[in-house]
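Problem: given the chain below (163 residues), write out its structure.
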Amino acid sequence: MAFDDTLFARYPDQVRDTLKHRFLNAIPHNETLGIRFVAAEPGSATLCLPYRDEQVGNPDNGVIHGGVITSLIDSVSGLAVFCSLPDFESIATLDLRIDYMKPARPGGDLFARADCYKRTRQIAFVRALAYQDAPDNPVATSVSSFMRGAGRHAGVSREEKAS
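Solution.
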């Protein structure tokens, strides 16, 4: 779905630069995993997870741990939501469902691309996939939903909200 009202559509270079340098660095877990920015456009994003021995779940076969792939998919999905919004706002993952199609090839970098396909006032919906050589041969696919304005009411009591 094309989002014409996005901050990204209005200021593509500035938003891309902000997402590239601040989004990934603001999440220490992403930095620890070595996740790198690849591309972004209104409503979609791509990230790369360079292969490293520390990410291996089974040392006998060198396959990347499923939790590392989950982190990559969650991050790229959130980034796609940010790329779909009219302004920067906080978000939180509500639901993340992943289908693992096959193990990632040991030694190969892993890419993930996500597309935000629907956005309501309160929720954004995303499809994503993780792959190595080509998107049409995925390691994993995903659907997820994100709450918009996650920090909007933080610290406000029910009584204050009602008044």
